[in-house]
Design goal:
mainly alpha, 12% strand, 3-stranded parallel β-sheet, 7 helices, 5 strands
């Protein structure tokens, strides 16, 4: 129901998982226990994915993450939000658009995401990975 909080992951969150940072893995497990898959989008994957055996841990993490497509609809919405916020990063804007009021965005980039969330009228918690 409405009490469910979704955890939205920015690239910093995925990097923390790849580096095996315990706090971030605990957050991922907690979301799974609550029955809520964390969410990100394909553009975020592109920022961090380089392939190869070194990313086995990230690959394991991604198996438990809902990766949304960065499709035309999300691209258009992201562009409109960037115009409103006076910013230029499509990946950041699309991350904010995955969130709804009360959700949590895990990011290293608090300034830009706070500005984007404000422009989107979205009340989210921005947390460090």
């Amino acid at each position: 129901g409405d009490l469910n909080m979704t955890v939205v992951l920015d690239s910093g969150a995925l990097i923390a998982l790849e580096r095996n940072e315990r706090a971030m893995w605990i957050r991922l497990k907690a979301a799974h226990l609550a029955g809520d898959l964390p969410v990100t989008h394909a553009g975020v994957i592109g920022q961090v994915w380089r392939g190869g055996p070194r990313q086995a841990r990230l690959s394991q993490a991604l198996a438990g993450i809902d990766v949304r497509p960065l499709d035309e609809a999300l691209g258009r919405a992201a562009g409109q939000l960037l115009g409103a916020a006076g910013l230029v990063d499509v990946v950041d804007a699309a991350v904010v658009l995955l969130a709804q009021d009360g959700d949590e965005i895990v990011t290293m980039d608090h300034d830009d995401l706070a500005q984007l969330a404000a422009s989107a009228g979205c009340h989210v918690d921005l947390v460090h990975p």
